[in-house]
Design a protein that fits this description.
The chain is mostly beta strands. It has a domain at about 45-120: Jelly Rolls. Helices cover about 0% and strands about 55% of the residues. The protein has no helices and 9 strands. The chain has strands at about 20, 30, 35-40, 50-55, 60-65, 70-85, 90, 95-100, 105-120. Strands 1, 2, 3, 4, 5, 6, 7, 8 and 9 form a 9-stranded antiparallel beta sheet that branches.
């Protein structure tokens, strides 16, 4: 089915009500940062999600399922991702990256950040 511009979702105007959470206690590495998610889009089949996400400084373990892939673009702040082998990479404002399915390691928000995200379940 063809779609027209009325189906385009723009991340502007009044944002959706944010969802608030914190990392589960057993996953925390440093702090208990508050995380806010603004879910701008969810595909009706629930296989694609997009929105904005903000987080206070802190670190926690992540274990991404094999079928979940996330594209991130940082609007502000800094993050370091460290894999289970101890290798790490940092990203800052304006940078984009993909967290692939199967990634296990630590998400460390070095400075409070805000990002846009797209999550695909494939």
């Amino acid at each position: 089915m063809a779609r027209d511009v009325t189906h385009i979702v723009a991340f502007r105007g009044a944002p959706p009500t944010p969802e608030l959470d914190q990392p589960r206690p057993e996953r925390r590495v440093r702090g208990a940062p508050l995380r806010q998610t603004w879910p701008w889009y969810a595909h009706p089949g629930e296989r694609l999600f997009a929105g904005e996400w903000a987080c206070e400084a802190g670190a926690w373990r992540i274990e991404v399922p094999e079928n979940v892939h996330e594209v991130c673009t940082l609007q502000s702040g800094r993050v370091r991702l460290t894999d289970d082998a101890g290798r790490s990479v940092e990203f800052g404002p304006g940078e984009s990256f993909v967290v692939p399915g199967g990634f296990h390691g630590v998400w460390d928000t070095l400075e409070p950040l805000k990002k846009t995200y797209v999550i695909a379940l494939i």
